[in-house]
């Protein structure tokens, strides 16, 4: 029951956050898209367990969509900002997901990540 409430609160926080993130005029990928693609990863990031296939597919889709440096930086900021708003998020688990999915991501998500250095 508590886990269900955590997921509900986390999902609601993400939905509200989407509406607060300013659009990036030149970016081809939006924060809203990235949020939808990565939402299946929230459960593992908060309580652990098994990483859903939809999470791995969402990461692959998000990475494939980020074709420009601006897209990658916007995506980095989006993930960083939204992650900070999820109650109970475990950054160690977040950073385990790419390896579990067999994906390489060139940076670790953390509150101190400098997305301006993402190329």
From TrEMBL:
Protein family (similarity comment): Belongs to the plant LTP family.
Lineage, top ranks: Eukaryota, Viridiplantae, Streptophyta, Embryophyta, Tracheophyta
Source species, domain of life: Eukaryota
The protein, known as: Non-specific lipid-transfer protein
Entries under PROSITE patterns matching the protein: PLANT_LTP
Keywords: Lipid-binding, Signal, Transport
Residue ranges constituting the Bifunctional inhibitor/plant lipid transfer protein/seed storage helical domain according to the UniProt record: 31-115
Gene3D superfamilies with a match to the protein in the record: Plant lipid-transfer and hydrophobic proteins
Keyword Signal annotated: yes
CDD domains: nsLTP1
Described purpose of this protein according to its UniProt entry: Plant non-specific lipid-transfer proteins transfer phospholipids as well as galactolipids across membranes. May play a role in wax or cutin deposition in the cell walls of expanding epidermal cells and certain secretory tissues.
Region forming the signal peptide: 1-27
KW Repeat (keyword) present: no
InterPro entries recorded: Bifun_inhib/LTP/seed_sf, Bifunc_inhib/LTP/seed_store, Plant_nsLTP
